[in-house]
Amino acid sequence: MSALLVLLFAAALSLASNSTGRCSAQDSEALLADMGIPIPGDEYWVQDNPQLWADEQIRCLHVQGETLFAGGQFDSIGAVAARRIAAWNGDSWSPLGGGIGDEEYGSASEVETIPIDSTGVYVVGSFWEADGGVDAWSAARWDGTGWHGLAHFNASANCIEEFAGARVVGGGFDHVDGEVVWKIARETSGSWEQIGEGFNYLVLDMAVYEGTLIAGGTFTRSGETYLNYIARWDGQQWQPMGEGFDNYVKVMEVIDGELYVGGSFEYSGSEWMGHLAKWNGSGWESIGGGVAPMGPGAGVAAFAKYQGNLYIGGQFEYVGGVWARNIAYWDGATWNRLGAGTDRWVFALAEYQGALFVGGWFNLAGGQSAQNIAVWRPTTTGTPGELPAGDEPFIVSHCSPNPFSPNTALHFTARVSAAVAIDIYDVAGRRVKHLGAGEFPVGEHSVVWLGDDDEGKAVASGVYYLVLSSGSHRVARKVVLAR
Question: Is the pLDDT reported for residue 265 higher than 80?
Answer without folding.
Answer: yes
